[in-house]
Amino acid sequence: MRHGTGTDWSRRALAVDIGGTKFAAAVVTELGEIVASRRMPTPRSRDGDVLFAALTEAVDAVLHAVGLEPHEAAVLPAVGVATAAPLDLGAGTVSPVNIPGWRDFPLRDRLVERYGCEVRMLGDAVAVAVGEHWRGAARGRRNVLGMVVSTGVGGGVVVDGRVVAGTTGNAGHIGHVSVDPFGPACVCGGTGCLEAVASGTSITRWAREHGLADGDAAAGAAGVADAALRGDPIALATFRRAGEAIGLAVAGAVTLLDLDVVVIGGGVALAGPVLFDPIADGYARYAALGYASSPRVVPALLGGDAGLIGAAGAVLRADAYWPHGR
To answer: Which residues are registered as beta bridge partners of 25?
Structure first.
């Protein structure tokens, strides 16, 4: 061990966040503070080993930053992994919709083999829900839906202060709930999924198809948001469509689970009122029962760190955030 003499490694976690656009890794303290981190773009490769090599490059860089070699990672209690879904907790495999190079990829076993310590996997949006419940906008609330609206749309649920995993670890995956049975085809094979309407990719596609200027569309969802802020009617209609669809889906979740708060993060959420105003309108239209009708959708506080902090929570706050027995 080269550095970090006197560090109580049992109070720190190695956290990994895997998404369709970025790989990230961090070392996180028991207070949810990131002491070192590394991010890189997700490789556009269909070779699973190439993807895994890029991920371990990020992890190794973080370990080096805190004075550990990869073979010394076992001094940490576990690796918390937030991964794009779907995943299979029992098998330890991942098949992210937006990472086609990984289908039934044995991520848990490969990480255990490389780093020699336990690996605890969560869906990336579940990790965001955990992060926001532990240290963010949902702190102190018992019943929470956390959502990520980015390349895809995901979700995770905390009920009575504990994460809900479901049978395979995919509970809360609101992005693949249909909000329009006659809507667009989704990459998952479904029809009219929320992700097919409200993800950054879908927002950009719909705006371009309906005539948004090429310059704005070329900048992705952020470009569409900028155009909406300038008052462009196509961009505004695009975000109105996406936001109301999110509001519809969220109203269903709140009605079903009687939630305290819904926290929405991810790159698309950075659009601010352009997105959140139509979300509020859609929610008000569909959340009709009294216990569900009051507004409760808020922006995330932790930004791009939420997934890493949530992944660390599965290690450092296992009593609440890790589904025991998996």
So the answer is: 16, 38
Length of the chain: 326
Query: Alpha-carbon distance 187 to 189, whole Å?
Result: 5
pTM, to two decimals: 0.87
Per-residue model confidence as pLDDT tens digits over 217-254: 888 999 999 999 999 999 999 999 999 999 999 999 99
First to last CA, the chain: 32
CA–CA separation, 118 vs 73, rounded Å? 10
Instruction: Output DSSP code: residue 139.
Output: T
Do 28 and 15 contact (CB within 8 A), yes or no?
A: yes
Mean pLDDT of the chain: 92
Query: For residues 64 and 316, what is the distance between their CA atoms, to the nearest angstrom?
Result: 21
Rounded to whole angstroms, what are the CA distances from 133 to 139, 260, 300, 313, 314? 5, 11, 10, 10, 12
